[in-house]
């Protein structure tokens, strides 16, 4: 008894002092949960959409008429599959590669704000942090391709490295254009810029008011160019068709993950679908007004109290709808456009996207310097 | 709770273990991957010192881009672990170079104690946000910045010139 009481008070102090640690754990669990549920939904969406494009029905048995639980069933099957590691592989790297590939996408997820109040971490360097950590995933792909000791895997990994390095430049330059306008790397501040009222008053009355800038994609012709470039480059960064050369089935079996099976294989898919969401979410936040439902009009909802809770949920719903729509466009592109050749991918990146994004950045700087507005006198 | 100093120590250990492995692994791919680990550890050190921008740049430029190119070249050349050749002239010379570099870094630190106390988790680097870095970089250090970019441009033009195929009417 003598020792129990101090021990208990000590435990209590530890528990209260670790409230921060606790909130971090909750944030991590929330992100893990969201990523898994998202991947399940996205795989289902991709299968349904591809079925539509090919005039098939698609998954329609597990989980009701629309096959909503098909991915869960497939996931369970993958979990029970034998975990094969080729005899000639570099065992440790082979086993680590899927986790490393997933790390980048997962870290990027943590920095995404979903509404004014819902975000795992609020980073001042938001955009920059996400661009930086999502570049880590390619290391995992390279590890997978090399350690498999298989020529298809190696070719796939090298294509992925070349492609990612090339398309990181236009996508980062394109993101610089809206950052130039807003003057902030913080994703929440970038969205806040897009709903500033046009007459500069901060305490607005009423439900709607004219926004100063509108969604940044429609702020000036150059931000729109930047939006298009970012979207195309992000397709390449997610290894999505028409840029899916790292896993080109018709040439490389299935590229860098040829030798993978079971859960390790599914981790690569988790990474791909998580990255699809991350790039679409950035496009939605930076170019398409984040959680603002209308382009040139800002919605003015209370952000505190019980109503504020509902408003935050509504904002998160709007943001999710935009991000999911952009992911759906990625799927649409994948099942419509044929795969490019390797040299075409490089020409596209270096001869078109990079010069155009540089011009857009320069012109945006000049427009801002001379204060040229896209729609002069309208608002 | 994890204090900044503990985090600093953990990242230091990661960076050091990575660095030791970079020079002891025989296979170039393993060494390069350990170097990625070192860079991530150093990025963590920057974060604990309050220099988030430097940390993110470290991850994006070094871990994400330069090391990917390193690995790409290693895979392209299909390098394998070199045979153990024991002591050689090249090894002795590289050891000498390593000691000289260490001395170059360590001597100024040993002579000027104020350099050593520049940044700790308790007194983080002041003014390290993106805007403040840009203000200094594009005003006070604008000339060195432009000179460096010119140097990189020259290197790039040179590399392209060396790598490109000569035209038919051209003698190499």
Short structural summary:
The complex is a heterodimer of chains A (379) and B (172). Chain A is mainly alpha-helical and 379 residues long. In chain A, 65% of the residues lie in helices and 2% in strands.
Structure, described:
The complex is a heterodimer of chains A (379) and B (172). Chain A is mostly helical and 379 residues long. Chain A has one domain. Chain A is 65% helix and 2% strand. Chain A has helices at 4-17, 19-53, 70-80, 91-110, 126-134, 137-147, 151-182, 187-194, 221-237, 249-252, 262-286, 305-334, 342-370; strands at residues 208-210, 297-299. In chain A, strands 1-2 form a two-stranded antiparallel ribbon. In chain A, helix 2 crosses helix 11 and helix 7 packs antiparallel against helix 9. The longest helix of chain A has 35 residues, at 19-53. The radius of gyration of chain A is 23 Å and the shape is globular. The model of chain A has no long low-confidence stretch (mean pLDDT 82). With 172 residues, chain B is mainly α. Chain B has seven helices and no strands. Chain B has helices at residues 4-24, 28-48, 52-77, 89-111, 113-116, 130-138, 142-163. Chain B is globular. At the A-B interface, helix 5, helix 6 and helix 7 of A face helix 2 and helix 3 of B.
The poorly predicted ranges of chain B are none
Secondary structural class of chain B: mainly alpha
Tell me which protein chains meet in the greatest interface and how many residues each side has: A-B, 30 and 25 residues
Enumerate how many helices of chain A there are, as a single number. 13
- The helix tally of chain B amounts to 7
What's the mean pLDDT score of chain B? 82
Q: Helix proportion of residues of chain B, in percent? A: over 70%
Report the span from N to C terminus of chain B. Answer: 65 Å
Radius of gyration of chain A: 23 Å
What is the arithmetic mean of pLDDT of chain A? Answer: 82
Q: Number of domains in the coordinates of chain A? A: 1
- Regarding quaternary structure, what we see is heterodimer
Overall form of chain B: globular
Which percent range describes the beta-strand content of chain A? under 5%
Point out poorly predicted stretches of chain A.
none
Summarize the amount of helix of chain A as a percent range: 55-70%
**What proportion strand of chain B?**
under 5%
Return the structural class of chain A.
Answer: mainly alpha
Give the helices and strands of chain A as they follow along the chain: HHHHHHHHEHHHEHH
The main sheet of chain B comes to: none
Strand order within the widest beta sheet of chain A? 1-2
């Amino acid at each position: 008894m003598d020792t129990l009481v101090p021990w208990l008070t000590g435990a209590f102090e530890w528990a209260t002092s670790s409230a921060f640690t606790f909130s971090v754990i909750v944030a991590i669990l929330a992100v893990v949960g969201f990523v898994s549920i998202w991947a399940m939904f996205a795989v289902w969406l991709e299968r349904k959409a591809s079925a539509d494009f090919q005039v098939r029905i698609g998954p329609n048995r597990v989980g009701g008429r629309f096959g909503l639980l098909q991915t869960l069933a497939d996931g369970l099957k993958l979990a029970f599959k034998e975990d094969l590691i080729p005899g000639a592989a570099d065992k440790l790297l082979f086993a680590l590669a899927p986790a490393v590939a997933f790390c980048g996408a997962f870290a990027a997820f943590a920095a995404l704000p979903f509404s004014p109040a819902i975000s795992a971490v609020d980073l001042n360097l938001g955009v920059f942090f996400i661009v930086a950590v999502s570049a880590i995933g390619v290391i995992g792909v390279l590890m997978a391709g090399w350690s498999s000791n298989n020529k298809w895997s190696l070719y796939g990994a090298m294509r992925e490295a070349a492609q990612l390095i090339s398309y990181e430049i236009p996508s980062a330059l394109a993101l610089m254009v809206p950052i130039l306008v807003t003057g902030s790397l913080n994703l929440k501040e970038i969205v806040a810029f897009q709903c500033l009222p046009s007459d500069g008053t901060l305490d607005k009355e009423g439900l709607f008011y004219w926004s100063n800038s509108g969604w940044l994609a429609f702020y000036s012709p150059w931000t729109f160019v930047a939006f298009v470039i970012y979207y195309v480059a992000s397709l390449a960064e997610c290894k999505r068709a028409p840029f899916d050369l790292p896993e080109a089935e018709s040439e490389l079996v299935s590229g860098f993950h040829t030798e993978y099976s079971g859960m390790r294989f599914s981790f690569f898919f988790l990474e791909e679908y998580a990255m699809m969401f991350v790039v679409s979410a950035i496009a939605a936040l930076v170019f398409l007004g984040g959680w603002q439902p209308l382009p040139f009009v800002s919605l003015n909802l209370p952000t505190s109290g019980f109503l504020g809770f509902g408003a935050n949920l509504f904002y998160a719903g709007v943001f999710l709808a935009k991000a999911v729509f952009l992911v759906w466009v990625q799927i649409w592109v994948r099942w419509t456009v044929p795969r490019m050749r390797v040299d075409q991918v490089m020409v596209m990146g270096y001869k078109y996207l990079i010069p155009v994004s540089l011009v857009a950045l320069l012109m945006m700087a000049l427009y801002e310097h001379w204060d040229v507005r896209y729609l002069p006198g309208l608002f | 709770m994890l204090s900044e100093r503990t985090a600093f120590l953990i990242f230091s250990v990661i960076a050091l273990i990575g660095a030791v492995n970079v020079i002891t692994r025989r296979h170039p791919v393993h060494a390069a991957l350990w170097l990625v680990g070192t860079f991530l550890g150093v990025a963590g050190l920057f974060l604990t010192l309050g220099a988030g921008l430097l940390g993110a740049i470290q991850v994006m430029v070094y871990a994400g881009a330069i090391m990917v190119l390193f690995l790409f070249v290693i895979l392209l050349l299909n390098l394998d672990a070199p045979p153990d050749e024991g002591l050689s002239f090249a090894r002795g010379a590289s050891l000498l170079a390593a000691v000289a570099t260490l001395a170059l870094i360590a001597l100024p630190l040993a002579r000027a104690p104020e350099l050593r106390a520049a940044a700790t988790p308790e007194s983080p680097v002041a003014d390290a946000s993106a805007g403040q870095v840009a203000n200094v970089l594009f005003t006070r250090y604008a000339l060195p910045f432009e000179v460096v970019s010119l140097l990189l441009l020259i290197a790039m033009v040179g590399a392209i010139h060396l790598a490109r195929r000569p035209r038919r009417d051209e003698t190499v």
